[in-house]
Known about the structure:
- The protein has five helices and eight strands.
- The chain is of the alpha/beta class.
- The longest helix is centred in the N-terminal third of the chain and has 16 residues, at about 30-45.
Amino acid sequence: MGIVEFNEAENTLLISSIFILYGGAASNELAVKVAGDVQDYWNGPNGVVTFNGRIIQVRFKIDGYYKPYLEPEEVLGNDNPANNYFRIEEQTQMDVSFVDGIGSNTGFFKLANLLQTGSTAAHEYGHTIGLDHPFDIDIRGRGVPGIMYPRGTITNAQYQYNPLGVAGDNTNGGTMNPDHRRVTQQDIDDLQLSRFRKNRYSVLGDFSSVWHDAL
Length: 215
């Protein structure tokens, strides 16, 4: 979830979000890393959006904070659309990182996923601002995987866990290594930011407001 600000004078569309981490595996260092990863990935393509033939630069500003004493009431009662709350633990219910729906502001992240690759937090952030997994996850011949492709996607050999593995075979590394995912201009296009052209301030996503207990 995030706040969209259109600055006509600077010819930019700024999307601002805050990652607030809590849980047994969260820390100040991790909050800074996760926020930095998300910002770097989403600013990577130098994305643009076109408003009535005018090209506008799209920029992301992501801040991260660790709140060791966060209470459920803050998450449940939050009314700041920039705030996103994520529990961080070594294990999650589904043994992977997840958010509480497409266009949400809460979730539960597995520490190992975040440490394995910065694309995990960037991928989950994409969900919070409204993007789902692509329908077709066999993208051989299409180059670098976009950020919203899930684990298990079939890619060209150089983007697999094991470049020598049989494509699609999870047992020998024949699926996408998520470290190869990148945000692309197509991901920016999929946000449909042109719908905000008449507003100075808008909101991407919605309040899911779910508190996650430790397992």
